[in-house]
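Chapter review: from sequence to fold.
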Amino acid sequence: MENCENNQGNSERLDKDFSSDAKHLDDTKTEQTKEESESSVNKEAKCDKIYTSVGKIDMNVTCRRKITILAHQLKRLSHEGSMDKFNAIVTRINDRYKAKKPKLGMCVPSYMGVNDIRFTVLDAQIEARRLKYDTNLTDSDMFGEMEKIIKFTSNPTSSSMTYLARRGSALSMKTTLDNGLAYLQFAKQHSIQISPCKDTGMVFYINANLLSQKFELNPSAEMKKELLETIEHAMAHFEKEIDDVRSDYSRMLMLKKAYCYLGLNLFGKKIQEISVSEDDRKSAKNCLDFIEKPDIWKRMESRRKMLYHIAKAEYYRQGQLFESSLMHGKIAFMFAQENSWTAELPNIIDLINDVESASPKAAGDDDTDDELIEQLLSTGI
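The C-alpha cell string follows.
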C-alpha cells in the first residue's frame, strides 16, 4: 500500500516535470518560430529593396519635349514638301554639331544633348527619304551614324527602339516585309520599357504601315483586325503629347484606318481581292469626317491632303458618284506631281482612268472640273 502511494507520488511528479518540460519546449519553439518569422520578414524587406521594379522611362520631361518639337517640325516640313527649309535646318544643326566636336571628356549631359539632336536629325532625314520610297535607303551611311551615337544619347533604349523601327521600315523596301516586321518586333519590345509618348507611338505607326502592306498580300479578316488594332494602339501612345503633336498623329492614323476600310493599300492602290461592305464605307466616312473637322484640318500637310483626296475619290467611286470622285482624284494628282511622291502617283492615275472609263460624262467636262477644284482648294479642303 505504501509502495503504491509512493509510486503514485512519483508518477505525479513525473507528469508535472514532463508538463513543465513540454511547456518549456513549446515556449522555445514559439520563440524560435517568432524569430524565424521576423528574420523572414526582414529578409523579404531587404529583397524588396533590392528587387523593387524599375519604373518605365518617362519621356515627357522638359528637355525631351524640346527634342520632340524639333522632330515633329522636321516631319511636318517633309510631309509639306518644304524640302528647302527642311534641308536648311538640317544643315545648320549638322554644322553646329561638327563645330562642337563632342568628346568623351566634355560634360556628360551636354555630350548627350548634342547627340540627341544629331540623332533626331538623322531620324528625320531617313523618314524624308522613306516618303520618296527610296529603296537604296538601307545602303545609306545614316544608319551607321545612328548606331555609333545611340549609346551616347540621353536615352539609349529609346534611341535603339527608333533605330530598329526605321531600319525595319527601310529593309521592307529592299528585302521582304517579314524582315522589316522582325526588326519592328524588337523595337516594340524596347517600347515596353518606356512610358507612352511620340517615340513609342512612332514604332506602332511604322508597324501599321508594314501591316498595311502585309494586308495587301493577305487580305483576310484576321489581318484586317490586326491592322486596325495596331492603328488604335498607336493612337493611344500619342494621348499625352502636346496638342499639336497629338492632333497631327490622330489625323494621320485616321487616314490609315480609312484606307483599310476602303480596301486601299499604303500607297492608295485598290486591293482587288477585298470586298468593301457598306459598314466599311460608313466607318471610312466617319474617319474622313473626323479629318474634315476645322481644328483637325487646319494643320493638314500637303502629303496628308494628297492621301485624304485619294481616300475621298475612292469613297465616291465606290458610291458611283463619279464626278466628285474625279474631282478629288485630280486634286490628289496635283499634290503628288508637285512633290514627286512617285509611290502614289501611278495609283492616282489608275484611279482617275477607272473613273473616267466608268463615267464618260465625268471625263468630258474639264472646265467644270477645274472650276470645282479651284473652289474646293480655296475653301481649304
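Two observations follow directly from the output. The chain has 17 helices and no strands. The first helix runs from residue 2 to 51.
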